[in-house]
Amino acid sequence: ADAAGALGPALEAYGAATRDAATASAGLAREVASARRRGCGLADAFEDDAALGALRDGLVEECAGIRRALPAALGLAEAHQAQQAAHALVARLESERTARQADLADVVDRRRTLESEIGTLADARADLAAASAAHEQARALRTDARTLAALQRDREVAATRLTEAVSASRAALERATHLQGAWLDSLAGELASGLQPGAPCPVCGSDAHPRPATRPADAPSRADVQRARDRAAAAEEEAARRQAEHSRADARVIDHLARLEGRDPDEVEAIHAAAETRLRRAREAEERTTEIRVALDELAVREASVRSALADVADGLPGARAGAAEADARAETLSREVDSARGSHATVAEALADAEARLAHVTAVREARALAHAASERLESTARQLAEQCAHLGFATPAAAQAAAMEPAARAEARARIEEYEADRAAQEARLREPSIAGLTGDEDPRLEEHRARVAAAQETEQAAAAAEGDAHRVQETCSAALADLGRSISAYHAAVEEASPVLRMERVARGENERHTSLSNWVLLRRFDEVLGAANRRLGTMSDGRYELVRTEDRESGRRHRRGGLALEIRDHHIGRGRSPHSLSGGETFYTSLSLALGLADVVSDEAGGVELGTLFVDEGFGSLDQTTLGNVMEVLHGLGRNGRAVGIVSHVGELKSQIAEQVEVRRLPAGGSTIVVHA
After folding, report:
1. pLDDT confidence tier of residue 48, bands split at 50, 70 and 90
2. What is the pLDDT of residue 386?
C-alpha cells in the first residue's frame, strides 16, 4: 500500500494525460466530422500535416479570389441598370425618330393638300372684285325694283290729287265767272243806289233820275267777286303744284322702269340672289385662302421644328448605340467574373461565406490535430514513466499499482461499479437473447445512404438558417433605422400641428365651422346683401306706399344646387303685420320689388366703386302690370333718379307713360313694311 501510495502522483499524471488525450482525440474527431459534413474535401488529408496545410492554403487562395470578385458583384447591378438605361435610350430615340418621321410625313401631306386647295380657289378669288361690282349692281337693281312699287303708288296718289285739284280749280273758276257776271248784272242797281236828287248821274250825266235801277238783294258785291277770283287763282296754283308733283312722280317711275330694263320683280330677285351667291363664294374663297396661308405658315414652322428634332435624334442615335454596346460589354465582363467567383452558389457573398466556413473548419481540424498529437505524446511519455516506476516498485502494471493504492471506500465504490457493470452486462446479454435481436444475422441493410442524405439535408438547413439569420439581422437594423426616422417624423408632425393650430382654427372658422355655420365669404356677402336691402327698401317704401319691406332670413336659398344660408328673402307686409313669400306677390308687385333691388344694388356698387356712378339705367317693360297709383309712385322714383343726374330709359307699350315722359323715341311701322323712328324732344 505504501508503494502504491508512492505511485499516486504518477498515476494522477497518467490519468490526466489519458483524459487529455481522449479529449483531444474526441475534439479532433468532432472537427473532422464537421469538416466532412461541410464538404471541405478532407478525405485522409487530416492525417498528413503537409496535405492539410496545402488544403488550407488552397482555401485561403479561394477566399482571396472570391473577395477580389466582390467589387465586380457590387458593380454588376449598376452595370445592368446602366445597360437597361442605355438600351432604353436607344429605344426611345428610335421611337422618337419613327414618330418624328411620321409627323414630318403628315406635315408634308397636309402642306401639299393645302397648296392644292389654294390652286383650286384661285379662280374664285380672282372673281372677287367682279363679284362685288355685280352684287352692288344687283343690290341697286333690287332697291329700284322694291322702290318702283312705292313710286307707282306715289304716282297714283299724285294723279288722284291732280284730278282733285283740277276739278277744284275748274269749280273755283266757274264760281268766280258766275259771281262776276252777277256782279256786272247788278252794277246798274249799285250805281243807282248812289244817286242823289239833283246830282248828275255818273253814267249819263243827267241830274234827273226818273227810273233808277234796283239792285237784287242776293247780288254779289265787288269784294265777293274778288274773293272768288282769289280762290280761283289759289285753286289754279294748287292744280299747277299737283301737276308738278305728278310730273315728278311720273318721271321717277319712268326712270326706275328704264333702270330695270323691263325686268319683273321675280327676275330682279333671282339676279340679286345669284350675285349674292357669287360674292359669297368669292369671299369664302378669299377667307379660306387666308386661313390656308396662316395654316401653311404654321406648318412651315412645325416642319422646321420636326426636321430639327429629327436631326437631333439622328445625331444622338450613334452615340446611344455605342453607349449601349459599351454597357453590354461591361456587363458581360462583370457577369463572367461574378459567375466564375460564385460557382454553384446564387451570389458571390454566399460563395465567400461557404469558402470561409470551409477554411474555418480546416483550420479547426489542423489545430485539433496538433492538440491531439501533443496530448498523445504526453500520454506516451507519462505511460513510460509510470511503467518504469511500477517495475521499480514491483507492480506488474500501473493498474495493479492503482488497485493496490485504493482506499477502502474507493475500493468499495469500485466493487459496486463492477457489480453494476456485471448486472448491466447480464441485462444486455438477456436482451441479446430476445427473439427480435437473437434472430438478426448481421446481413441487414443499415440504410447508410439514406442517413447520409438526411445528414446532408440537415447541414443545408443549418446553412440556410444561418443565412436567414444574417438577413434577419440586416432587416432588423433597417427597421430600427426606419423606426427612428418615423419617430422623428412624428415628432416633427406634432410640432408642425402645434405651430399651425392657430391658423387651422382660423381656417375652420373662415370655412364655416363656427356657431352660426357661416363662412367668411358668406358673412361678407351677407353684410353686402344687408346694404343692398337697405338701399332697396328706401325705394320700395315709396313705390308701395310704405306697405312692403324686404327682409333677409336665415333660411337657405331655394332653387340652388349649392344653397347658402341667410340669403333667402321675405316680404314684410305692413298692412297684415307679417311676412310673405316673394312668390305670393302679384306681377306688378314683383316688378317694382325687383326694380327696387336693382336700384339698391346699383347704389351699393357705386359706393364700393369710390363714388363712380352707374349713370344710365334702362327698364324694359313691366309697367303694364301696375295700377295708376303704383305707376305714379314708380315714375316718381325714376324721375328722382333723373333729377339726380342719371339717364333713365324706359322701353314700354303703355300709352299712359307718354304723358309723363317729355323726351321720347317712338318706333312706328310703315305700311310697306319695316319701321321708322320719330323723336319727340
Report:
1. low
2. 67
Residue 655 DSSP class: G
Confidence of residue 70 (pLDDT cuts 50, 70, 90): low
Q: Which tens digits make up the pLDDT trace of 461-485?
A: 989 888 888 888 888 989 899 999 9
Question: Within 13 Å, how many C-alpha atoms sit on residue 28's CB side?
Answer: 20
520-680: CATH number: 3.40.50.300
Mean of pLDDT over the chain? 76
DSSP 202: T
Is the model more confident about 338 or about 405?
338
DSSP H helical ranges for 343-447: 348-393, 398-404, 408-432, 435-438
Helix, strand, coil content of the chain in percent (nearest 5): 75, 5, 20
Contact of 567 with 612, CB cutoff 8 Å: no
> Burial code of 318-349, b = ≥16 C-beta within 10 A, e = fewer?
eebbebbeebeebbeebeebbeebbeeeeebb
Compute the distance between CA of residue 372 and CA of residue 15 in angstroms, rounded to an integer: 16
Q: Which residues contact 189 (CB under 8 A, 6 or more apart)?
A: 213, 214, 215, 216, 219
Place of cell 306688378: 588
Q: What is the rounded distance in angstroms from the CA atom of residue 55 to the CA atom of residue 358? A: 10
CB pairs under 8 A, 24+ apart, for 49-54? 49/366, 49/369, 52/362, 52/365, 52/366, 52/369, 53/366
Choose among 138, 360, 357, 149: nearest CA to 267: 138
Amino acid at 62: E
Q: Per residue in 556-610, pLDDT tens? A: 555 444 445 567 888 898 888 888 888 888 888 888 888 888 888 887 777 666 5
pTM passes above 0.90: no
DSSP assignment of 12-41 = HHHHHHHHHHHHHHHHHHHHHHHHHHHT--
Which bin fits 196, alpha (ψ -120 to 50), beta or left (φ > 0)? beta
Q: What is the pLDDT of residues 355-370, one digit of tens each?
A: 667 767 677 777 777 7
Give the residue among 522, 549, 534 at the shortest CA–CA distance from 607: 534
- For residue 586, the tally of other CB atoms under 10 A from its CB is 9
Helix (H, G, I), strand (E, B) or coil at 651: strand
Check residue 317 and give its pLDDT.
82
Phi, psi of 611 (to 5 degrees): 90, 5
Provide DSSP, 94-133: HHHHHHHHHHHHHHHHHHHHHHHHHHHHHHHHHTHHHHHH
Compute the distance between CA of residue 480 and CA of residue 614 in angstroms, rounded to an integer: 72
What is the per-residue pLDDT across 281-298, written as a single tens digit (0 to 9) for each? 777 777 877 888 888 888
| Secondary structure of residue 181 in the 3-state scheme | helix
Helix (H) or strand (E) run with residue 617 in it: strand 616-620
User: With 0-12 CB in 10 A as exposed, 13-18 as middle and 19+ as buried, what is 450?
Assistant: exposed
d(C-alpha 85, C-alpha 323), whole Å:
10
Q: Are 598 and 607 a contacting pair, CB within 8 Å? A: no
For 646, the grid coordinates are 342719371
What is the three-class DSSP state of 85? helix
CB 338 within 8 A of CB 348: yes
pLDDT confidence band for 6 (50 / 70 / 90): low
Amino acid at 75: G
Helices and strands in the chain, H and E counts: 16, 7
> Going by DSSP bridges, is the β-strand pair 664-669/647-651 parallel, antiparallel, or unpaired?
unpaired
Report pLDDT digits (tens) over 407-443.
Answer: 657 656 867 888 888 888 888 878 777 776 766 666 6
Q: What is the pLDDT of residue 16?
A: 79
